[in-house]
Amino acid sequence: MEFDSGSAELNQRIAEWLRWDKNEKTSAEIRELAQRGDWKVLGDRLLQRLTFGTAGLRGVMQAGFNAMNDLVVIQSAQGLAKYLLQCYPTAEERSRGVVLGYDGRYNSKRFAELSACVFLNENIPVWLYSHTVATPFVPFAVLELKCLAGIMVTASHNPKEDNGYKVYWTNSAQIIPPHDKNIQTSIMENLEPLETSWNLELLLSDKLNDPYDQMVELYFRKLQANVPQPFIRDYNTTSPLRFVYSAMHGVGYPFVVKAFECARLPAVIAVPEQRDPDPEFRTVKFPNPEEGKSSLVLSMQLANETGCDVILANDPDADRLACAEKDTKGEWRVFSGNELGALLGWWAIRCYREQYPDRSLSDCYLIASTVSSKMCRSIANVDGLNFIETLTGFKWMGNKSVELLSQGKTVLFAFEEAIGFMFSPTVLDKDGVSAACHLATMASYLRATSNQSLADKLNELYDIYGFHCTFASYHFCYEPPVIERIFKRIRNLGPGGKCTEGQNYPQSIADGRFKIADVRDLTTGYDSSQPDGRAVLPTSKSSQMITFSFENGAVVTLRTSGTEPKIKYYAEMCAQPGQRDWNGSKATLREMVDCIVEELLQPKENNLTPRSD
């Protein structure tokens, strides 16, 4: 049956979908929309494609080329498989295979199995995890099994309607240019699915293996080796602390249990309603512990009932970690990702010194994304380490780690403010399982050696390295043209003559009270702090990111999210060691953030929705 939408291109896309899609549900979805003549919806779904962003493919599960569904997954796997064969053309190289994992979301296992069949059909061996796994177990397997690539089917902490497709390259780090663009090109060249791509009987092939037992055993053996044995013996085994744990309806629980066992920590007390995978995420509005107290209500209730002072929470695919601690007044403090990054960065150095007391720190590195706190930079400057800043996203930090390791350097720790932590390069991606183990060990160590809480230690670090006040939040914006308009306006707010290429950035906010010293725009490639006016970090016209450095030392970044309809903003004020007016720094930064939001984002005029928590 042919349909006439009035657009030859849309007619062709409808016909292609109905010809190619063998999934009865999504095929019927497109057919019914066409029968109703709902051409706008069909245009939205069929004339655009999902493309690789910050975290690979991610989108709502529904019919259409711009969504996550069987056909798009098969097309993506076909494109990736063909690209791998281009990069690794010999039979010997091909025999290294690929590894696939999946979380507990709707369709995750099916998407992984369909992908496996595509690779098997190309005579590429497949390691397919037989159970749900935490995301870090895919890059870990790529590294340990020396695979060509890895795929994790997950949408991390997105709403239940979403799913995603995270791709790791041969070096076990997430893909970056040119691989992301090349894979996208290869997908477009291999859109028509082979009949065999839908044949799940290929899962019986002798070229398919399950890495679960082997990788789980090896992962925890390596995790245990990364915890100094005296700390396990002297502090973990006798720790009086008890930890409430939430898997946020995801996959983390069995892995965190095993992590605590191998480090001989007290068993976690799991939030029962959130312990096991549940694709409905029925107890939380957003399955994202980054949201703060609103996502930790049940955890706090259980901790209060059981007398626990520390809460640990993973996101649903267990690559992020949140932490809350009860203070002396009985109030819960949820640490920000930047605060946890400072604590874990210090702890990584402490563990390294314990294990290698005779080694210099001069070849050791701490890494953070550009929108994260510079506290690790301050620690590195004082303690004689190296600090490197990358673009936002662990794909950049993972690949920078690969580069450093190839030069014989030691990467101790990497983090991003969105509660993502890489403690040692055992996994070249964020890992909420190992982070939970190390954070709990640190808490036990602090209690035993100095009777400090995590908050006490953080304040001590501020005394030594300087107070770093940070603030991060976001507004929802569901209309891409509005985002474009907002950032275009920001680039033309200042008086003429300051910037090249017709761009005139603001020179101050709050009626001139806070003057801007420098502007870096990683969308256009402009950086006023560089002699040639060109940014040092890589730039991308496909996303928005502007950083303002103020004369008073504050730094504020505005950027769009690569995975969600958000405009995010990050602000930091860095004090010198010994500077004690912390409340004054906080108040000034908060005032500046409020001015930035009102003057530059204009939430009322642009109908932006603020963060609820």
Automatic annotation (TrEMBL):
GO terms for molecular function: magnesium ion binding; phosphopentomutase activity. InterPro entries: A-D-PHexomutase_a/b/a-I, A-D-PHexomutase_a/b/a-I/II/III, A-D-PHexomutase_a/b/a-II, A-D-PHexomutase_a/b/a-III, A-D-PHexomutase_C_sf, A-D-PHexomutase_CS, Alpha-D-phosphohexomutase_SF. SUPFAM superfamilies: Phosphoglucomutase, C-terminal domain, Phosphoglucomutase, first 3 domains. CDD domains: PGM2. Signal peptide: none annotated. Keywords: Carbohydrate metabolism, Cytoplasm, Glucose metabolism, Isomerase, Magnesium, Metal-binding, Phosphoprotein. Pfam families: PGM_PMM_I, PGM_PMM_II, PGM_PMM_III. Its main location: cytoplasm. It comes from the Eukaryota. GO terms for biological process: glucose metabolic process; purine ribonucleoside salvage. Residues 50-190, 219-326, 365-463 form the Alpha-D-phosphohexomutase alpha/beta/alpha domain. Belongs to the phosphohexose mutase family. This is Phosphoglucomutase. The lineage of its organism: Eukaryota, Metazoa, Ecdysozoa, Arthropoda, Hexapoda.
